[in-house]
Amino acid sequence: MNLMVFESEEWGQNLPLTDHRGKHLKEILKLQIGDEIKMGLVGEKWGKGQYLGDENGFCRFIWPIRVFDAPPPYPLVLLIGTPRPPTARRLLKDLTTLGVASLHFTPTDLGEKSYLQSSLWTKNEYRENLLEGAQQGESTHLPEVHTHRNLHEALKALPAGGLRIAPDLPKHGLSQLTWPVTPPETVTIAVGPERGWTEKERIYLGENNFQTMNLGPRNLRTETASLTAVSLILSRYFW
User: Total structural domains in the chain?
Assistant: First the structure.
């Protein structure tokens, strides 16, 4: 945890030791009274506060004046065939750390439709995973998260224009990726579920201007393909 990120209702309040951030301060960082710590508010600036120790089960701080700008998200959008909830939690955290701007999750023909009925989505538990990712990436900005009823609805919700990429096996029929010389306004990446896209879905993606990015001949897990594709884009267009 490189930056403690707080929701607006938490700012200025003592932090329970039962909170994962409180546990991290005590058990991992092993802060001593008077130690400085970076603290920020979701979507806003951050500053350096001071740890005052714990009392009656709560961590106490001198709260900072927020004076430093957090790095903004990159113009990266991901469309993801909804994976199992444990996989989705890891993806939400890691993609936030990498700095993506928005995430769209959709059921697919070969994916399990019930995944979107998990409490991760129905009770907005994913927010905690976003906060963990932001704290690791030292930013206060969280990606927008959207869930959709089907691929058609998800594609309509994506930003228009920019570069659209679908990491896929080279044997399948999307047109091959042509890299723009200059960074596009947005890059949208469509990653299928564990069992991949169906041929019908690939055709539909192609009709919506997605080009294939070859990640090699092996079948990759959804999270591996997502993180690899984002890293390749960032290495090419470091906005």
Answer: 2
